[in-house]
Amino acid sequence: MLDFTSVPVDAELYLVNEGPDEAYGGGEPVTDFMPANPMTTGQVMRFAVVPLTSNDTSTPPSQLTLPAIPALPTSRRIRKLSLNEEDSAYFPGAPTMAMLGTTTPSGSATPLMWADPVTETPVKNDTETWELYNFTGDAHPIHVHQGGFQVIGRQAIGSGTSSPPLPGEAGYKDTVIALPGDITRIKMRFDIAGRYVWHCHILDHEDNEMMRPFQVLPRSSR
Ligand SMILES: [Cu+2]
């Protein structure tokens, strides 16, 4: 929700992209990387404020009460998953493809291709925690189909301390940013049986192996 009450008529406001014009690896604009060019790639949307044309029937933000977010039940199982990049044999530091996969109990990656057999098979109505181990040098926006999930938190791979979700991650999400070197934990209830996918939402990644199928099994198959 955007409140333009105190914005003068004829003002022009821009929604901007503060991410870099290159692969994003986390951190703050200016401090850790140069933001996208504000004259071109940094511009996402322009708001041109005009005089009111009819009665404003919207609720003032101060009077809004948002519904509480129901907590998910305890996870039936934890799945260790992985985000990987396959390095070129010819150009150091240049990945040839990005891959999802699993992570072994000891914490090493098993990258898998799109066509490899399904490894994630939650049972209908079960709640699971998925731990996304990002073994790459880049951040990846990970999107899970089928339903919304809750972000539980993050911790560096190999470190004991976890950080809570960011302020903007309090509600149900369908995409979460997995930062390089982090384990990002999400919790999700799978309430419709069938075949779905989870994938990185960077088009060049998802179309180059960073997508995997998963299968929600009917209840009776347990
Ligand atoms: Cu990606």
TrEMBL record:
<dbReference type="InterPro" id="IPR045087">
    <property type="entry name" value="Cu-oxidase_fam"/>
</dbReference>
<protein>
    <recommendedName>
        <fullName>Plastocyanin-like domain-containing protein</fullName>
    </recommendedName>
</protein>
<feature type="domain" description="Plastocyanin-like">
    <location>
        <begin position="115"/>
        <end position="218"/>
    </location>
</feature>
<dbReference type="InterPro" id="IPR008972">
    <property type="entry name" value="Cupredoxin"/>
</dbReference>
<comment type="similarity">
    <text>Belongs to the multicopper oxidase family.</text>
</comment>
<dbReference type="Pfam" id="PF07731">
    <property type="entry name" value="Cu-oxidase_2"/>
</dbReference>
<dbReference type="InterPro" id="IPR011706">
    <property type="entry name" value="Cu-oxidase_C"/>
</dbReference>
